[in-house]
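Moderator note: this is an archived Q&A kept for reference. The question asked for a predicted structure of one protein chain; the sequence and the answer are reproduced below.
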Amino acid sequence: MKKITIVVACLLMAGTAMQAQKYFTRDGNVAFFSSTPIENIEAHNSKATSVLDAESGRMEFAILIKAFQFEKALMQEHFNENYMESSTYPKATFKGAVKDWSKVNLSKDGEYPVTVAGDMTIHGVTQTVEAPGVITVKGDAISAASEFPIAVADYDIEIPAVVRDNIAKEVKVTVAIDYQPLSR
């Protein structure tokens, strides 16, 4: 009976440890910036959802397109209605993994340069992407950051000829995530 109790206790502890191996946020920050000679376009979204599996390095993101905030209301309206068609394509997603996850030591404070690769879906189009990033460990806190370009044409986002010179063909995307342990 004592052996069964020890085995059950070990299984329960292992289950608890496995639960603590996932990290989550609903408050991730994603921004994009586009520069042209006529006008700069910048938007911020502080409601990105992300999950990080600390055992495998797999990560997923979901971003509501309508949650991007612009300095000018008209830009935001055109972005949602004319370009991103956010009623038809309400979110952007990423499903992938940190390629060099074995280099990240979650029990040791530090900044770990990594490469993230996976499938990004924007405007109903999925592309395989790879981007540099940094995983930062400080105490029990884990954060992730990345900056990478996205070509608008890769996601079938049509820019009308009349404003084509006002919108860059490539936008710079910046991601900053502070993860919390996922508790069940």
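Archived answer notes: Strands lie at 22-34, 41-53, 58-64, 69-70, 91-98, 110-122, 125-138, 141-151, 170-181.
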